[in-house]
Design goal:
alpha+beta; Rossmann fold; Jelly Rolls; twelve-stranded mixed beta sheet
């Protein structure tokens, strides 16, 4: 299979969205009939007429203690009565060339809800000076100074400050809240919980996503510390320095601060998130003890909230408005109460909306399927509920080339197609069985749902000191041999004697998927995916086996569709 080049910018806004944000900025700076009239083509003229009437907008440069200038935009309610105060929302920018201007589409909703709004580009991004530190201690210190500047504005209530951010802005928001108790509520879309888990899953580097982010950061704008980390990750030097760099930038390591302050935290992620670890977000969510909410949607990083960021309606941004209203006392939302607990969509139905009080009640119990050898005359093995199946071995050729099975042909964009109801079609019947091993269930006798977490155990024997495997679970149509991906995970065995068998047990990404009657679940294991760094020495072989006593299995949260 020819996989599209991951070096393309998967985060780029469409030309129309970029033009819209540019027109919005001009109308905010100069709310004349001519400027606001340009917004008619998007149906936004009336919205920004109201914005000009109720709030005063300006762009500014905020000086940090070290002389760094932070590029920002500020909207403050007009005509506050004497002694009247308003809540305030701070919007650290997502990772793109527009910086704080990427947030301008949200200003009218915040303003109409009575909020002061301050959006800013973190140091090193867009027109902000300084070097990029990747939501590190310097960025947290900057956020504190941003809050200092905000609460000096007449009318801003220092007891009602919230942070909202998407992606990079989500990380900054969560980490700022862990270090500044003046931040009373946080909403982070496409958030991360553990940066190390996002870079290095089951001993395997997420190299494609990492390089896409580095390209977007621009290395020449990065701090010396970050440039050193970039080179170490590229060189597969995962040492204490890399771990500490990730630790201080991971919200999960600030859990005590969140729980001591009972900080209200809303997070969102996606089932096919290719940038940040979904299990790490779930883990952080389950350990939070204050008010909390988790939304998991169809698609990939940033897909769900994108319409809301440019001024349209999206589930993540609507939830964020309600979240801040509830905790800060504004009226940006629709007056409904915020959703606490877990809210989810299932693949690939955007209209689905399931709600559970917590992850424990959301995730269904797992059912064990044993990996069995192929039946006589069959090419593929079987996934059977019968009993453990020892004694078989499948040898995979490691060539350094992809099979038909890949995590995503395109970062971000494949997930965006899923949200449009067009999931990628995998022709699993065409996969070279010398490059991949496949196990398949019998056809399902009734519609079923997969909802929750997975666990795979196999024994891996690389013919070198290291070896990588990638596992995928597919929804396969036996009539056509075509499939859609449900979940996946890599695993890399390291520092072993060549030919040494190692039994590994690891989770696959959680998923929520509905299967039609007659479909088959299909487990595919191969040795290469362009999304991950490959530790295999090519050409060589990797054996997958099921020894007596450590038989291979796949635990799936599979239940009848109610």
């Amino acid at each position: 299979m020819s996989v599209d080049d991951y070096s393309e910018n998967p985060f780029a806004l469409s030309a129309d969205d970029t033009a819209k944000l540019e027109a919005i900025e001009q109308a905010l700076l100069d709310p004349s009939p001519r400027r606001i009239g340009r917004l008619d083509q998007w149906g936004l003229a009336d919205t920004y007429e109201v914005q000009a009437e109720i709030a005063e907008y300006r762009e500014l440069s905020i000086a940090m203690a070290d002389g760094t200038r932070i590029d920002a935009s500020l909207s403050v309610p007009r005509n506050l009565a004497l002694g009247q105060t308003c809540p305030a929302i701070v919007l650290p920018a997502p990772l793109n060339g527009l910086g704080h201007k990427a947030c301008l589409g949200m200003f009218p909703r915040w303003s109409s809800g009575g909020y002061a709004v301050l959006a800013y580009s973190q140091r090193g991004l867009a027109k902000s000076t300084g070097e990029i530190h990747v939501a590190g201690p310097q960025d947290v210190a900057d956020a504190k100074e941003i809050v200092d500047s905000l609460i000096r504005i007449d009318g801003v209530d220092p007891e009602r400050i919230g942070f909202f951010g998407a992606s990079y802005g989500a990380g900054t928001s969560l980490l700022a809240a862990a270090n500044d108790r003046r931040i009373k509520a946080v909403a982070g879309t496409s958030a991360w919980g553990d940066l190390f888990a996002s870079l290095y899953e089951n001993g395997t580097r997420h190299l494609a996503a990492f390089e896409a982010l580095v390209k977007l950061f621009k290395e020449d704008r990065c701090s010396a510390e970050f440039r050193g980390i970039i080179q170490k990750i590229r060189g597969n030097v995962i040492d204490d320095e890399v771990r500490e760099f990730a630790r201080v930038r991971s919200p999960k390591h600030h859990l005590k601060a969140y729980n001591d302050a009972e900080t209200p935290i809303l997070m969102t992620t996606a089932w096919h998130e290719t940038i940040f670890s979904v299990p790490a977000v779930v883990d952080l969510f389950t350990k939070l003890q204050g008010p909390k909410s988790l939304l998991v949607q169809v698609g990939d990083h940033g897909n769900g909230e994108l319409p809301g960021l440019v001024g349209l309606v999206s589930k993540p941004t609507e939830m964020a408005y309600r979240w801040m209203d509830h905790h800060l006392g504004g009226t940006a939302g629709d007056g409904a109460q915020p959703q606490f607990g877990v809210r989810s969509e299932y693949m690939h139905n955007l209209l689905s909306d399931l709600q559970h009080p917590d992850w424990e009640s959301y995730a269904l119990p797992k059912k064990r399927f044993h990996l069995a050898d192929a039946a006589v005359g069959a090419a593929d093995g079987q996934l059977t509920e019968d009993k453990p199946q020892p004694g078989w071995t499948r040898s995979l050729k490691a060539t350094g080339k992809d099979t038909e099975a890949v995590v995503a042909p395109k970062l971000i964009q494949t997930g965006l197609a899923e949200r449009a109801g067009l999931p990628h079609v995998y022709k699993t019947a065409d996969i070279d069985r010398g490059l991949a091993a496949i196990w398949t269930t019998a056809p399902l006798e009734q519609p079923m749902r997969v909802q929750g977490e997975f666990e795979l155990r196999v024994t891996v024997t690389p013919r070198a000191m290291e070896g990588t495997i990638v596992a995928y679970l597919m929804d396969c149509d036996p009539a056509t041999g075509k499939a859609a991906i449900i979940t996946h995970a890599p695993y890399t065995v390291t520092d072993q004697e060549p030919g040494q068998a190692t039994t590994v047990t690891f989770p696959l990404q959680p998923a929520h998927y509905v299967l039609n009657k007659g479909r088959r679940l299909q487990l595919i294991i191969d040795t290469h995916d362009q999304f991950f760094a490959d530790a295999n020495r090519a050409p060589s072989t990797v054996d997958i086996s099921s020894p007596q006593g450590t038989e291979s299995y796949l635990d799936i949260p599979l239940h009848p569709l109610s």
